[in-house]
Amino acid sequence: MDSIDELVARLAQDATAVKPVPHPFLLSLKLIAATTIYLIASLTFSGLRPDWVEKLHSLWFDAEIAALVGIFCVTSLSAALLGFPDQYQKRKMVLAPIWLFILFLLVLILALRADSPAAQLPVHSFQCTLSITLMALVPATWTFYAMRKFASTHSRLAGCVALLSAFSVGALWLRLHEATDSLVHVIEWHYLPMLVIGIVGLWLGKWLLKW
Amino acid sequence: MTDQNENFESLMRQSLAGDQRAYAILLQKTSRLLRPFLAKRLSFGNEVDDLMQEILVSIHKARHTYDGNRPFKPWVYAIATFRLQDFLRSHYSDHLRHAVDFDELEETLPENVTVSELNYESISVEVQKLPEKQATILQLMHQEGYTAKEVAEKMGMKESAVKVAAHRAYKVLRNKLEQ
After folding, report:
1. Which of A90, A95, A189, B86 is most deeply packed, by most CB within 10 A?
2. Residue in A3, A18, A83 closest to B53 by CB
3. Is the CB of A2 inside 8 Å of chain B's CB atoms?
């Protein structure tokens, strides 16, 4: 007990005025705004797909993009909440990405069924995954950097969500940049690698978000 | 209960503003709040104290993530649970690291303790070396299954004398076999 009293006295001596971190909604808005600017800048630099006007009139393409944007926004919010030890006491919001991923899966299944006759597969393959990963590096870095200032008690989950958020930005960029109509290719090389990225995020979170 | 919660929260708000006295009171109150929680989950008092220190340091490090606009207790219990899980994980991984493999243990044992050098033949040989009367009594009682009373009738002895003779024979046998 004496050691506890000593520690309390020492910690109290060290205590200076501390500015609490911003509300997680504000934090996620900052992340979303910064990433949107990054995405717009990247698309300006790399260029939109040539058939983008035509594609915007395709129901399933619009649904796919909307679901991806939803995943990006909700994972950003979830990552911000996971930075707090108690997830800002909003556990349901932390798990919201699950619903978005289910919706995304549903959209892909319906789009695949509507894709008849199936579009021709492009000649390239893993290059898409690589491009998405490279594009995701910048948002992943700043999301992790921001989260390290917090005190996550679910570091693995936080790492997974942060990386999925960054990867969804990369996927969004490539879908708006590359003129590929083959959904099979898109699922195989754009979206399925998300599973691997999620696992890498679990591992990264454990190491990078330790406090 | 509400008053106590308000106390915690207002103390934390004062602490964040730099009030060291409020912070000391808050940490003391928190350690009293968490002690039963930890004691229920850990076996030894020194473990509770060690972990309590870690938790208090963690609260200190993470105090910027509390803004005073939500209940304090879930925030502090989240940190305590996190540190408790960390502590138990490292505690059990240490146990596993220091555990001895059963195969290794078998190799290091000095001898096979379950195998005895004694067997029926060796005992029979020793019985034959006993005085004739004692040897006959043991033979009748243990090989042919007679009771002490039946042996006494057969040999024309008193039952108590048979028991005494058998007892002496056991003693001699035990000494010889222990050598």
Report:
1. A189
2. A3
3. no
Q: In terms of CATH architecture, what is B120-178?
A: Orthogonal Bundle (1.10)
Q: At CB < 8 A and 24+ separation, what contacts does B36-44 make?
A: B37/B77, B37/B80, B38/B80, B38/B84, B41/B84, B41/B88
Residue-level pLDDT at B123: 79
CATH class of B2-98: mainly alpha
Domain interval for residue A100: 21-208
Burial environment of residue B100 by CB neighbours within 10 A (0 to 12, 13 to 18, 19 or more): exposed
ipTM: 0.85
Q: Do A12 and B63 touch (CB under 8 A)?
A: no
Q: Could you say which of A1, A11, A17 has the minimum Cβ distance to residue B17?
A: A17
Instruction: State whether A11 and B23 contact (CB < 8 Å).
Output: yes
Structure confidence by residue, pLDDT tens digits, A147-199 = 999 999 999 999 999 999 999 999 999 999 998 889 999 999 999 999 999 99
Could you tell me the two tokens for A2? Answer: 């004496």
Three-state SS for B91? Answer: helix
Show the low-confidence residues of chain B (pLDDT under 70): 1-6, 45, 99-118, 179
Number of domains observed in the structure of chain A: 1
Q: Do A23 and B18 lie within an 8 Å CB cutoff?
A: no
